[in-house]
Amino acid sequence: MKEKLKQEMKEVASNIRKVREFRNYTQDYLAAKLEISQNAYSKIELGYSKITLDRLFHIALILEVQVTELLYFEKENFTSKLGTNA
């Protein structure tokens, strides 16, 4: 059970990175918006840091997506929703 949770947390972290890259935002940009260091932000994307619910909602707000899109990212749905072919 613990291993499954760890894997799901890494998946969410990976989804955050995917959306950030899709938006062409840098880690520095998100770190500044979250008022944390770039190194601390990098640890979030790598899955080394646990994400609080507050932080998850804040990241979603910055990335202009619903929290569910960070939990269950699907590129096809994401790009079609935005009307792009990226």
Topology (SSEs and partners):
Layout: H1 2-22, H2 27-34, H3 38-45, H4 53-63, H5 67-71, H6 75-82
Helix pairs in contact: 2-3
Describe the structure in your own words.
The protein is built from six helices and no strands. The protein is globular. It is an all-alpha fold. The longest helix is centred in the N-terminal third of the chain and has 21 residues, at 2-22. The protein has a single domain (2-79), classed as 434 Repressor (Amino-terminal Domain).
Q: What is this structure, in a nutshell?
A:
The chain is mainly alpha-helical and 86 residues long. It is built from six helices and no strands.
Name a few traits of the molecule.
mainly alpha, single chain, 86 residues
Query: Which value, in Å, is the CA radius of gyration?
Result: 13 Å
Enter the CATH topology name: 434 Repressor (Amino-terminal Domain)
- Count up the domains: 1
Query: Count the strands?
Result: 0
